[in-house]
Amino acid sequence: MAEEFVSCRIQPGKVVVFIKPSCTYCRRTQELLSQLPFKQGLLEFVDITATSDTGKIQNYLEQFTGARTVPRVFIDHDRVWLRIHSMTPKMFFLLGTCLLLFSICQDL
């Protein structure tokens, strides 16, 4: 169930972020990414607390990425684990720039 929950959301050409709304780092990531001009449907935030399998989903994320904490960011089907809580403003800017370029490249 948890593997299917995660796997069916991660798709090529999309940025998918697994979050918990109560998590400060998740909210910070969501605020940053929501400011970028992604085409409709290319950016998705997945609230893992909206299911009764939150613990199982985090266990699967740990098995898949090496850690169970959120946010977990997947860009274009690839795993990108970001330690959001330790990112400086400059790192956030660079992340935003990379994701902006990703969203622009979807138009090409």
TrEMBL record:
<dbReference type="InterPro" id="IPR014025">
    <property type="entry name" value="Glutaredoxin_subgr"/>
</dbReference>
<dbReference type="InterPro" id="IPR047185">
    <property type="entry name" value="GLRX1"/>
</dbReference>
<dbReference type="InterPro" id="IPR002109">
    <property type="entry name" value="Glutaredoxin"/>
</dbReference>
<keyword id="KW-0249">Electron transport</keyword>
<dbReference type="GO" id="GO:0015038">
    <property type="term" value="F:glutathione disulfide oxidoreductase activity"/>
</dbReference>
<dbReference type="GO" id="GO:0005739">
    <property type="term" value="C:mitochondrion"/>
</dbReference>
<keyword id="KW-0813">Transport</keyword>
<protein>
    <recommendedName>
        <fullName>Glutaredoxin domain-containing protein</fullName>
    </recommendedName>
</protein>
<feature type="domain" description="Glutaredoxin">
    <location>
        <begin position="15"/>
        <end position="78"/>
    </location>
</feature>
<dbReference type="InterPro" id="IPR036249">
    <property type="entry name" value="Thioredoxin-like_sf"/>
</dbReference>
<dbReference type="Pfam" id="PF00462">
    <property type="entry name" value="Glutaredoxin"/>
</dbReference>
